[in-house]
Write a structure and sequence with these properties.
The structure holds two protein chains of two kinds. Chain A is an alpha/beta fold. Helices cover about 40% and strands about 25% of the residues of chain A. In chain A, helix 3 crosses helix 4. The chains are: A alpha/beta, B mainly alpha.
Chain lengths: ~220, ~260
């Protein structure tokens, strides 16, 4: 289980203090996958980083009684000048995982072939998410933080990833950030909407999607 | 402390050890891994710096500083200088150049800086020993006069380096222009730290002012450890210990304070 207790976070900018999260409370339970919905810049990635422990909130507490992955996405969690394999070794070392076993699994899953020995910065977005997802599967977590990881892959990889996610959900749960309502519906049963720093959670995914659609419509009406 | 807390702390230490080890391996790999000569470059760089000033001293017909061979004098001066300037430089860039790795919850800003400081200290130690070895092979007389003083200097140099590094990188979060000012200051400090001259070669007034510089203190004290006759005027172990420990304490505290305030 992961519990967020009264989390607030923000940054000081030139124009004053910018609040990203405003007294957020939420509980993620094993066996339930949760979608986090919100407009661009709403603070979804910051929230995910705080859940994973990559960033500490300015105030509040995160209680984790299960293992949580790093935010898996096509965004960078790897060093650009190191090769895929060297990045893999680094991750194995910090998680104390068996390098040989993980290497074999990732080679098979990601189908990167000789790109495994090329610098990570030469990878396309799709290849990046393949490596990140394969590696997080090989290490194994209770909760997977997934940040828009599969929107960039090709159809083959997306299908493979979707299949893996289905299998994964037998033992693990997802905390899923995506703008695609379809993939959210396919993988999650709960939802939460982040808007103006306030997080509203719903036990029923459809209610979350309804609220999110309303926010999107409001925004586009304002723009027009 | 309860048994559970104790267990948590031990677990944390195990993870941190793993992380720092992984960071060190990564660091070594990225700095020296992609050139054919690899580590040899560090040796070449140091030897080059020393060589230039050696020639300069010879051309100026400068005397052997207090009976210490010029080579030893310069090797020690540059060794200490490279460690401290390297620590400051590398710590200030540590967060920016490791941003992706900080996505992993086990990896903290302090781990990255610690990893870098360890790499710098060990490489410079190896380089200094090698250069002294080469000097000895060329029949230059080298003897350690005070192993105790040498040991104290060896401990204080990384402490002061890490302290300055953490402190300046934390201050740079509030004052971003520090990232430009510090390299300029380091250029000036290079000339005021006794790297290629001895503080006692100046008049007493100037030497007194210079001796407030902790880097100069560390450079000169290290030289004292290698020579019986090297003067210890104005050098104080108490002063440099106090400065080093205060800087480190302040640096670690401030690093912890800015951690949630760094914008990524």
């Amino acid at each position: 289980m992961i519990e967020l207790i009264d989390i607030s976070h923000g940054y000081r900018t030139k124009d004053g203090f910018h609040t990203v999260l405003d007294h957020v409370n939420m509980r993620f339970e094993l066996g339930h996958s949760t979608a986090i919905l919100g407009l661009n810049g709403a603070g979804k990635s910051t929230l995910i980083r705080i859940i994973g422990g990559a960033e500490s909130p300015r105030s509040g507490q995160v209680i984790r009684s299960s293992s949580v992955s790093w935010p898996v996405g096509f965004g960078g969690c790897f060093n650009g000048s190191l090769t895929g394999r060297e990045n893999l070794r680094f991750v194995c070392r910090i998680y104390g995982a068996n390098i040989k076993r993980v290497n074999a699994y990732v080679e098979d899953f990601s189908e990167l072939g000789e790109y495994m020995d090329m610098p990570f910065k030469t990878y396309s977005a799709g290849m990046r998410s393949k490596l990140a997802f394969g590696l997080s599967l090989a290490i194994g977590f209770d909760f997977y933080l997934v940040d828009e990881a599969f929107s960039v892959g090709d159809v083959v990889f997306r299908q493979k990833a979707a299949l893996q996610l289905q299998k994964l959900k037998e033992q693990s749960s997802l905390i899923f950030v995506s703008h695609s309502i379809n993939s959210v519906k396919a993988h999650c049963d709960r939802g939460a909407v982040l808007n103006n720093g306030i997080l509203q959670s719903f036990d029923n995914l459809n209610e979350a999607i309804n609220l999110y659609t309303r926010i999107c419509n409001d925004r586009s009406r304002k723009a027009a | 402390m309860s048994a559970l807390q104790m267990q948590h702390m031990l677990q944390g230490l195990v993870v941190q050890r793993r992380v720092i080890k992984a960071l060190i391996l990564r660091e070594v790999h990225t700095i020296y891994g992609d050139t054919k000569l690899g580590y040899l470059w560090v040796l070449i760089q140091s030897a080059f710096g020393i060589g230039v000033f050696w020639v300069m001293r010879e051309l100026l017909h400068a005397q052997n500083p207090h009976g210490m061979p010029v080579a030893v004098f310069l090797i020690l001066g540059f060794g200490v200088w490279y460690v401290i300037s390297g620590c400051i430089n590398k710590c200030m860039n540590a967060v920016r150049s490791n941003l992706p790795l900080l996505t992993f919850p086990q990896v903290t800003e302090l781990d990255v800086m610690l990893g870098r400081v360890i790499v710098i200290c060990v490489t410079q130690l190896v380089v200094t020993v090698l250069l002294l070895g080469i000097a000895a092979a060329l029949d230059i007389e080298i003897s350690v006069y005070s192993p105790r003083l040498l040991f104290i200097c060896f401990t204080l140099i990384p402490v002061f380096g890490l302290g300055c590094g953490t402190l300046l990188s934390a201050l740079a979060v509030f004052i971003p222009s520090l990232e430009r000012i510090v390299p300029l200051m380091m250029r000036l400090l290079f000339f005021a730290s006794g790297v290629f001259f001895s503080a006692t070669s100046f008049t007493k007034d100037i030497a007194d002012i210079l001796s407030y510089n902790p880097i100069l203190q560390l450079v000169e004290l290290t030289r004292c450890a290698f020579s019986f006759s090297y003067p210890r005027d104005g050098l104080s172990l108490i002063y440099i210990s106090a400065v080093s420990l205060s800087v480190l304490t302040l640096g670690l505290l401030l690093e912890r304070y800015v951690r949630t305030r760094r914008q990524r």
